[in-house]
Amino acid sequence: MKRVLAINDISCFGKCSLTVAIPIISAFGTEVCPLPTSLLSAHTGISGYYKFDLTEQMSKIYAHFKELNLNFDCVYSGYIPSLSGISVVSDILKDNKGKVLVVDPVMGDNGEAYQTHTFDICDKICSLLNGATIITPNITEAAIILHKPYPTNITSTSFFNSWLKELANLSEISIITGILIGDNLYNVCYDRRSDEFFEYQTPKINAMVSGTGDIFTSCFTACFLNGKSIYNSLEISSLFVYQSILKTGILNKNILDGIAFEPILKGGTFIEKV
Asked: For residue 221, is pLDDT > 60?
């Protein structure tokens, strides 16, 4: 069984980060060892949340992992709320050089950095990307990484080909998620190893929901580790997010509660593909 070190926050309410990564990656037959960066009462889209930084604990937990001689096939990094936490994650990524390194550079959305992410934090998060195997920014995060203005009025995914290639100077596989063009939502990818572009589209859903990036990257990571091709990994992950959002609407859930991915996971359709 492959083993993933998942570095992300624990949001006690509102499904995202580790509460998404652990069940999804585990369901695909891969062990997950969580390394929490912070503890939140609810995800940051819910007002009044309480947050406790776990940077000091991260170092001690990882030190014990090393004492146990744990071997990780993959390190998957997500939300890191502090400069000191980023430094710890940087050391962990360097310590696992040669493994599959997945970095989701969580910094912002809808053209703006998150209020919790200062320029210095964003700059340090960008430094984590160099040498990664896979990076999965959304459009806002890709613009921040590449120091480009947030694009508007996009009519074709080919606009992002140059962005993907620039991002691939940092990693082997670059992915940009959540590109809305007309009535479709696209996830696009470039594999530097084969010099190939890939994309997958699903119908647009008129809903703003939290946790879609975590679901996508967790699913993509599980597929990739199980030997699926880049295109199949992109397909499975995109459909998983789409059908989970559809299920959320059918259940008439409050979208701030998070996406109803569990019924889709329980159905087993996606697991069977892997």
From this structure: yes
The pLDDT tens digits of the residues spanning 3-57 come to 999 999 999 998 999 999 999 999 999 999 999 999 999 988 888 889 999 999 9
Of all helices (H) and strands (E), which one includes residue 148? none
Strand partners, 39: 10, 52
CA distance 268 to 274: 10
Residue 261 to residues 164, 168, 245, 251, Cα–Cα distance (Å): 28, 30, 8, 11
* Element containing residue 44 per DSSP (H, E): none
Residue 140 sits at φ, ψ, to 5 deg, of -60, -45
Residues 6+ apart with CB under 8 A from 119: none
**Parallel, antiparallel, or unpaired: how do β-strands 112-113 and 108-109 relate?**
antiparallel
Detail the DSSP E strand segments found in 26-170: 31-40, 51-53, 74-77, 100-103, 108-109, 112-113, 132-135
> Which pTM value belongs to this model?
0.94
Q: Do 15 and 257 contact (CB within 8 A), yes or no?
A: yes
Rounded Cα distance, 262 and 80, in Å? 25
Task: Give Cβ neighbours of residue 186 (< 8 Å, ≥ 6 apart).
Answer: 157, 179, 180, 199, 200, 201
Kindly state the tokens that stand for 188.
């696009």
Backbone angles phi, psi at 258, to 5 degrees: 110, 170
Q: Which two tokens stand for residue 36?
A: 């929490």
Which backbone phi and psi does 259 adopt, to 5 degrees? -85, 140
